[in-house]
Structure formats: C-alpha cells, structure tokens
Amino acid sequence: MDQNFIKEMETKLKEQQKNLRNDLAGFAEKNVHKKDDYNTKFPNYGSKDEENAVEVADFQDNLSLESDLEKNLAKVDKALERIKQGAYGKCERCGKKIDPERLQAFPAATTCLNCKNLT
C-alpha cells in the first residue's frame, strides 16, 4: 500500500481519536485504571421528581453513547496499531488488500468488504 495513503489515513485516524476522546470527556470521566475506558458522570439537575427523572434518562442515554464511542475509539486505536505493525490495509481475515475506497470511507476498517459481509 502506498505510504502517502497510509500517512493520510493515519492523520484521519488520529483526528478521529482526538474527537472521540473529546466527545467522551464531555460527559464521562477517564478511568485511571484502564486505558481508553470512561465512566459516565451522573448529571445533577436538582431534587424535584421531574428533574430526577430527566437525570436518569440522560444518564441512560449517556451510558449508551459512551459504549458506542468507546467501541469506535477501540477500532481507531486498533487501526493505528496496525499502521505501526505494517499490517494496515490488509484484511485481518483473508489477508487480501482492503480497497482504498473502503479505507477512505472508514479508515478504521480491518476487513475487506467480502469478509465484512460474511459476518
């Protein structure tokens, strides 16, 4: 795979990594014991029943969002690690080259479209 393309993808992935971490920091605290693990903060809107209900609803939404963002962050981290290892752009299932258009659209892809569609 072309080194300029890999550098371009590495730049995109690092930007995604930064954005995901910033998004998580907006409503969660970083877990000091686990890398890239966050704990959603429980909001405090007041003590009225309506406020408490909104707190619980927002907390549940944030827990779901935290999970999704952490999964995306793990994919980005894995792709950056594959760049370091020289394995970026190769399908981790079949070993064939991942289409550069797929990587442009989803830089964290670790499988080719054929293998992705098998799952």
TrEMBL record:
InterPro entries named among the record's database cross-references: Znf_DskA_TraR, Znf_DskA_TraR_CS
SUPFAM superfamilies named among the record's database cross-references: Glucocorticoid receptor-like (DNA-binding domain) (SSF57716)
GO molecular function ontology, one term from the record: zinc ion binding
Pfam assignment, any one: zf-dskA_traR
Coiled coil: none
Keywords of the record: Metal-binding, Zinc, Zinc-finger
Zn finger intervals (dksA C4-type): 91-115
Residue ranges of every copy of the Zinc finger DksA/TraR C4-type domain listed in the record: 86-117
Protein name: Zinc finger DksA/TraR C4-type domain-containing protein
